[in-house]
């Protein structure tokens, strides 16, 4: 850094000495679930923590933008559902910037594709689709392939991006029935239900369908298995616009961790897989088959997270948005030889590019939003839930990290400095997004 006075400093501005630190764009988590319904043991639904909590935790962890979901349900219009969701977010307050994917589910009425086109034009260009009901109790979540075909045509025509939870429903439901029949319904057997064959079959079927609708761009959510990585790698080798996301829990935990005390802490849907699958995820992150590392954030108490103990009732998601940047820096740069550029791409820049926010987000450049995380390698920490800002537990409890954010800046405003909160719950803004033509054409990241 040049000596103070080497650059003109405007009146009232502050000069920050970042010597010895890593100055990077603010993190972007493209997969969170705030104010999300979870059923508790007595059968009543409860909502997870909202953006006021999750957004603040994100900022303490160096993340300045999160992308959550609008859940369209039958009886509503797509834009009506989006407006309701945005009103809920505004009422709760989000101190970091945010955007929303549109989630559709079940048997889609014929008017829904046209309504999705309207949402894309309104700045909500990403559409989430399930190819499975996930559990037997969630009937109606899966979208059949005829309706997926119709949605893909809308995405291709209007410049959208498909955000896909891909598992083969036949395989998943067969394995639920099999394990129940065999008396092996404990959650520690989850990897047998949400298995690698399911990921392989569904990824390849979805990618084949997209290939038949030229211009369809896809973002494959929470890739968990070597089969998924390979399917994306092969699609990208054919220059198809396909991008891969994994989660930090898949990259650092395996199905063996289900056997640990409170092993539900490490679970999200699909399941954790084997060490060989985890190794394949890291290879995919190195060669560009995995482009983004997200959290599938679901901020709830330990009691709610561990309330289920069967393959069909274990709570998904994780409280992970705060330690994500520090954990991934330590694991990517500190332990596995990734460059700083590769790390920043995985936790920030690639999500900004794929999700239609670049260069406003994911960059430090003239005209960008001045979203900045200053990572300090001198702040080596052991992750402890009690000193973070999300929940009363952390799946990363006890893990030592090589750096921690010393400062987080949102659009030029210092939001967090050290352990001090300087932001406001009204500071976050909704981000209008548009998927760039080069991303829809399959540009390499």
Category from helices, strands and their pairing: alpha/beta
Q: Cα distance, first to last residue?
A: 29 Å
Largest sheet: 8 strands, parallel
The number of helical elements comes to 14
Tell me what portion of residues adopts beta-strand conformation: 15-25%
For the secondary structure, the number of strands is 17
Give the overall form: globular
Helix content range of the residues, please? 25-40%
What would you say this structure looks like, in words?
The chain is of the alpha/beta class and 445 residues long. Helices cover 33% and strands 17% of the residues. It is built from 14 helices and 17 strands. It has helices spanning 51-60, 78-92, 112-121, 145-158, 169-181, 190-193, 196-211, 226-237, 248-252, 275-287, 302-305, 324-336, 340-354, 437-440; strands at residues 22-25, 27-29, 37-39, 45-47, 63-71, 97-103, 126-130, 161-165, 218-220, 242-247, 292-294, 372-376, 381-382, 400-401, 404-410, 413-417, 420-421. The strands form four sheets. It has an eight-stranded parallel sheet. A five-stranded antiparallel sheet has the order 1-12-15-16-17, with helices on one face. A hairpin with a 2-residue loop joins strand 16 (413-417) and strand 17. Helix 7 (196-211) runs parallel beside helix 8 and helix 12 (324-336) crosses helix 13 (340-354). The chain is globular. The mean pLDDT is 96.
């Amino acid at each position: 850094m040049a000596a103070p006075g080497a650059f003109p400093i405007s009146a009232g501005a502050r000069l920050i000495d970042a010597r010895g630190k890593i100055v990077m764009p603010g993190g972007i988590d493209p997969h969170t679930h705030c104010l999300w319904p979870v059923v508790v043991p007595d059968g009543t639904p409860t909502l997870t923590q909202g953006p006021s909590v999750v957004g603040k935790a994100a900022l303490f962890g160096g993340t300045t933008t999160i992308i959550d979901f609008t859940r369209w349900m039958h009886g509503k219009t797509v834009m009506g559902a989006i407006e309701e969701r945005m009103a809920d977010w505004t009422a709760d307050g989000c101190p970091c910037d945010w955007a929303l994917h549109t989630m559709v589910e079940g048997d889609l009425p014929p008017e829904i594709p046209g309504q999705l086109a309207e949402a894309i034009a309104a700045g909500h260009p990403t559409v989430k689709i399930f190819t499975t009901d996930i559990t037997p109790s969630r009937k109606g979540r899966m979208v059949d392939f005829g309706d997926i075909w119709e949605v893909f045509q809308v995405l291709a025509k209007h410049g959208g991006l498909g955000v896909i939870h891909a598992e083969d429903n036949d395989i998943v439901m067969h394995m639920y029935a099999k394990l129940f029949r065999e008396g092996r319904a404990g959650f520690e057997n989850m990897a047998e239900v949400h298995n690698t064959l399911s990921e392989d079959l569904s990824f390849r079927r979805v990618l084949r369908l997209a290939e038949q609708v030229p211009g369809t761009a896809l973002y494959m959510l929470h890739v968990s298995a070597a089969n998924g990585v390979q399917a994306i790698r092969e699609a990208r080798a054919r220059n198809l616009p396909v991008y891969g996301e994994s989660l930090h829990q898949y990259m650092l935990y395996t199905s063996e961790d289900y056997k640990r005390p409170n092993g539900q802490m490490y679970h999200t849907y699909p399941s954790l897989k084997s060490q060989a699958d985890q190794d394949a995820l890291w290879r995919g992150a190195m060669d560009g088959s995995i482009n983004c590392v997200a959290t599938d954030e679901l901020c709830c108490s330990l009691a709610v997270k561990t309330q289920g103990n069967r393959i069909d009732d274990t709570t998904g998601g994780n409280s992970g948005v705060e330690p994500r940047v520090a954990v991934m820096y330590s694991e990517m740069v500190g332990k596995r030889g990734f460059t700083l550029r590769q790390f920043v791409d995985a936790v920030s820049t690639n999500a900004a590019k794929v999700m239609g926010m670049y260069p406003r987000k994911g960059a430090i450049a003239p005209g960008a939003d001045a979203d900045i995380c200053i990572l300090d390698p001198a702040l080596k920490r052991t992750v402890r839930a009690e000193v973070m800002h999300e929940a009363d537990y952390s799946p990363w409890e006890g893990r030592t990290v090589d750096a921690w954010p010393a400062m987080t800046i949102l659009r030029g405003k210092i939001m967090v400095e050290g352990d001090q909160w300087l932001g406001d719950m009204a500071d976050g803004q909704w981000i209008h997004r548009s998927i760039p033509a080069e991303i829809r054409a399959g540009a390499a990241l």
